[in-house]
Amino acid sequence: MAKSENVYRSRKRMLIDNFFGGITWALGVWVGTTIVIAFLAYFISQINLIPALGSFVAEVSKYAEQSKSPFNF
Predict the structure, then answer these.
(1) pLDDT of residue 49
(2) pLDDT at 71
(3) Which residues contact 29 (CB under 8 A, 6 or more apart)?
(4) What contacts 72, CB < 8 A, 6 or more positions away?
């Protein structure tokens, strides 16, 4: 870069760049988290830990079905 080159960016351009940078960062975090959770779910399913959790999930879903309506007697 030459010494006389101006590196000033307008406020509008800086805000636009930072906005799209934030959107891109959030999208990357979302995709990365989704991939990590998918791998964890796959590995946990291979450990046979899921049958132990199956009864707990069944109890929770049964409770949720019973308490769907506030007028359930």
Answers:
(1) 58
(2) 61
(3) none
(4) 66
Beta carbons of 50 and 44 less than 8 angstroms apart:
yes
**Which sequence spans correspond to the domains of the chain?**
11-66
Residue 31 in tokens: 């995709």
**Unique residue bearing structure tokens 């960016």:** 9
pLDDT score for 57: 73
Helix/strand/coil for 6: coil
> What's the alpha-carbon Rg for the chain, to the nearest Å?
25
Is residue 50 within 8 A of residue 57, CB to CB? The reply is no
What average pLDDT does the segment 28-56 reach?
80
How far, rounded to the nearest angstrom, does the alpha carbon of residue 59 sit from its chain's CA centroid? 26
Given a cut of 60, is residue 8 above it in pLDDT?
A: yes
